[in-house]
Amino acid sequence: MPRPLIETVNLTKIYRMGGQPLAALRDVSVSIAPGEFVAVMGPSGSGKSTFMNLLGCLDSPTSGEYRLAGSDVARLDRDVLAHVRNRYIGFVFQHFNLLPRVSALENVELPLLYGDVPARERHHRAAEALTQVGLANRMDHHPNQMSGGQQQRVAIARALVTRPKVILADEPTGNLDSETSVEVMTLFQELWRAGITIVLVTHEPDVAAFAGRVVNMKDGRVKSDRRQEARNARDALAAAIALRQQEQSEDAEHADAARKEAG
Ligand code: ADP
Ligand code: MG
Q1: Over the stretch 43-72, which tens digit does the pLDDT of each residue have?
Q2: Which of 2, 23, 152, 188 is the most buried (most CB within 10 A)?
């Protein structure tokens, strides 16, 4: 067993908003090895996003331990956390969170503005990341000229451009139709094969099926954690496309028959 990339021990987050303290996360102990693809499932309010925000160093736990790549990040101050985040982590969100009126290329360059990467290299690396997600011919498009699936691919390119060890994706297919979801999952599986560690929140079992491990949460706790044979997203996409095409040709036949009958 290699050293875990992510290791939490009794990770706990309690929100105190005015009245009752609310335990959003309770004693979560999870180890994730480099190169794993983990789906986090659970009903709304079960603590999935809270967990992701802690893993992503966007927030600090109330108690418990979190080691990222062996270093204790649970108690770092904000500036150091930001540095760790930039070095190790890429984020993908449900609503893409792109700037609508600047090009895909400029969106992908953004995370590099916080480092001191020279403009030429920023440009080069953003173009490389967009090529990796299959958008080499869309670099000048603005997000508001793109489909949801394309926008999510731009967001994935933006997550990749800093060359992170881990991609954290919170319901990345939540805003996509089912065929586009599978298409986006083919991309996550490619990144997985390339060695990137992925933690992905979803409430859809069909999406979790593409991961190699499923962690189920309820009421802020881990209810189950099991490895599985990941379903191949390329195969699933081919099957979904074939089914759609068959349905479309059946619809066309029906319309044709109806026309003949009427005429
Ligand atoms: P999930 O992503 O599984 O839907 P969340 O992690 O968003 O769940 O929320 C877990 C619980 O913590 C919920 O009861 C939610 O209302 C609460 N919560 C989440 N974020 C905050 C916050 N910033 N302040 C107060 N309560 C919060
Ligand atoms: Mg959530």
Answers
A1: 999 999 999 999 999 999 999 999 999 889
A2: 152
